[in-house]
Amino acid sequence: MDGSSVFIAVQKVYYPLLCILGIPANLFTFYMICFRKCGMSETAIIYLSCLAIVDTFYLVWVILLDLCLTFLQLQPFWHSDPWCGILAVLQYGALYSSSWIVVVFTIERYLVLSVTGARQRFTRPRTPVLTCVAIVAVSHLVSVPMGWINEVTPVNMTLEAGNITLPRCRYKEALYSTVLVWITTFLSGGFPIVLVIIYNSLIAYHLCRSSQLFTKEERRTIRGANTRGMVRRTILLLGTVSVAFVALSLPRFITYCILRTEYNDKDFDRNDYSLPINVMSDLANMLQNLNSTTNFLLYCVVSRRFRRELLGTLTCGSKAREFGSFLTQNTMKVFSVAHPNSRSPPWGGHPCCPH
């Protein structure tokens, strides 16, 4: 077995595994963030739960329907019209949404920390809800032109049964497609990465500068405040998600720019894994797709409250405590109403001190 076959075999295992683990993890993360008290602010709950949902859609459109079906089926349904164009719109819409939710959440946290009047304005639940809805809507609207970058063309394929011709949804070699793909590359990768790095650096600078204004005792008092502690936990979660986003998205942006400049030739074989650029590009794609499955793990690592609520959910600890409380309350009621018409116990004396 040569290197190309090994690499393809790895991808056949890797992408289905991402779906099996990533989709349930994102849905469970959405439940934990929305319905369990994980110590997050209201705005963080809205942004991070929306991020979990759009990442789930990204896994469905890109990993499950595109990559997995390519390996598992000879003729997936999206290799025909109109699904060839519709799937591209859904894929890029989910990619835009995921990237720009992280960007907008980062900018919002910076404004809350640095601008005096921004805290009351941006901490209202209505503001992040409308922002997330606008991001998802605009992302899919901007992705509509991507429905025409691919076309269904007949392709000769060699199988065990012989040579057959099947329709395939392939990239359209045209100036229109090239320009759109370059724009999409910067809107989904280049600009978000730059903005996340800039605003996270500004947040770190603001926090360092603010810490120098207080003594050690004052900083200890501030950390003890509930609102300050919640802001600090939110910033920690945001920083972790942002770092993961940049680290996993940057390699794909770099390799794609190289492919579209140094190897921008219609005769270039993208499936030739004897070329290092093809291997590096597919590895970068694997990291990019991994970005949509890591948030659950990141929350478990950096958030003690998330881990505690997760453990309580998995072990049914909260239900056990609720049942115990319910049983205790009803037991006390039974004893308290045993003689409803008497203010003293049947044996006489003080109600709390039987003879």
TrEMBL record:
Per its UniProt record, what InterPro entries does this chain match? GPCR_Rhodpsn, GPCR_Rhodpsn_7TM, Orphan_GPCR1
Q: What is its main location?
A: membrane
Q: Which residues form a coiled coil?
A: none
Molecular function as annotated in GO: G protein-coupled receptor activity
How is this protein annotated for GO cellular component? plasma membrane
State the compartments where it is located. Cell membrane
User: Where would you find the membrane-spanning parts of this chain?
Assistant: 13-33, 45-65, 85-107, 128-149, 180-208, 229-250
Record's keyword terms, sorted: Cell membrane, G-protein coupled receptor, Membrane, Receptor, Transducer, Transmembrane, Transmembrane helix
Is the Secreted keyword given for this protein? no
The membrane-topology field of this record reads: Multi-pass membrane protein
* Cross-referenced Pfam families: 7tm_1
Give the top-rank taxon of the lineage listed in the UniProt record for this protein. Answer: Eukaryota
| G-protein coupled receptors family 1 profile domain mapped to chain residues | 25-299
**What's the family?**
Belongs to the G-protein coupled receptor 1 family.
User: What is the name attached to this protein's record?
Assistant: Probable G-protein coupled receptor 139
Q: Which organism is it from?
A: Clupea harengus
